[in-house]
Amino acid sequence: MDRKLALITGASAGIGVALAHVYARHGYDLALTARRRDRLDALGEEIQRRHGVETVSLCADLADPSAPAAMVGELDARGLAVDALVNNAGYGLPARYQDLPWPDQATFLQVMISAPCELAHALAPRMAARGFGRILNVASLAGLAPGAVGSTLYAASKAFLVRFSESLHLELREQGVHVTALCPGFTYSEFHDVTGSRAQVTRAVPPWAWMGADAVASAGYAAVEANRALCVPGVVNKAAALLARLVPENLALAIMGRHGAEIRPPAPAGR
């Protein structure tokens, strides 16, 4: 691989696939990681055919605490240096906080917080030493809004990523390393299918509030290249983020309490 290399987690679906195409279109070779080998290999073949760049598939489950170090070790063994890290892997828990056992919550925190922080910790110093690097952390509009029913750890983890990205942005901005938190809102992807909330969300959220994954990915790439600490893509999402900052916290929380559950799966029977 003679080009710059982008490591993209959660690359097998949705925004991850769109980000892979965006980075390849801008001349990056790709290290693609996700749990599903068949999807990674198929995506790698498509990207090589369409964009003429090289790809490598790293099948890994970030729920395993050893996965981030193993991924970095495998790239080292191949002699590959990461120029752009895209922390995209993530999912939602389809229940209220008290309805799932703690091991499920701990696994969620490993994927959503520990893994992206560990990857950034391992790769950012190398980027700084070379005087070039890009770190794009895919957060969410939920991380900029008040808490909501059924979004207990999801919104909190995305808020963490926003603040983490902002601090890292300040620490590395003089060393040639750009750090950005990307905060999309409702995006056409598999996310709501996995959580089982597709029907509810489709009924509750009007079509004009949605964005395509390609548009989200392009906005994120442009933002990290411009070294903006925060990227909220789309006019509707920008308006929602501004409103969340302007509305008094108690009022915003009351609104979320009344309407937030409309887009969350119902609690299991008996709870």
Mean pLDDT: 89
In which order are the strands of the major sheet placed? 3-2-1-4-5-6-9
Q: Which residues form runs of ≥5 with pLDDT under 50? A: 192-196, 265-271
The major β-sheet equals: 7 strands, parallel
SS class:
alpha/beta
Which series of helices and strands comes N to C?
EHEHEHEHEHEEHHEHEHH
CA distance, first residue to last residue: 53 Å
**Globular, elongated, flat, extended or rod-shaped: what is the shape?**
globular
The top level CATH class name: Alpha Beta
Rg of Cα set: 18 Å
Could you give the topology of this structure?
Blueprint: E1 5-9, H1 14-25, E2 29-34, H2 37-51, E3 55-59, H3 67-77, E4 84-87, H4 102-130, E5 133-138, H5 152-172, E6 177-182, E7 187-188, H6 191-195, H7 198-204, E8 211-212, H8 213-225, E9 230-231, H9 235-246, H10 249-259
Parallel strand pairs: 1-2, 1-4, 2-3, 4-5, 5-6, 6-9, 7-8
Describe this structure in words.
- This protein is of the alpha/beta class and 271 residues long.
- It has a single domain (5-263), classed as 3-Layer(aba) Sandwich (Rossmann fold), CATH 3.40.50.
- It contains 10 helices and 9 strands.
- The protein has helices at residues 14-25, 37-51, 67-77, 102-130, 152-172, 191-195, 198-204, 213-225, 235-246, 249-259; strands at 5-9, 29-34, 55-59, 84-87, 133-138, 177-182, 187-188, 211-212, 230-231.
- β4, α4 and β5 form a beta-alpha-beta unit.
- α1 packs across α8 (213-225), α3 (67-77) packs parallel to α4 and α4 (102-130) runs parallel beside α5.
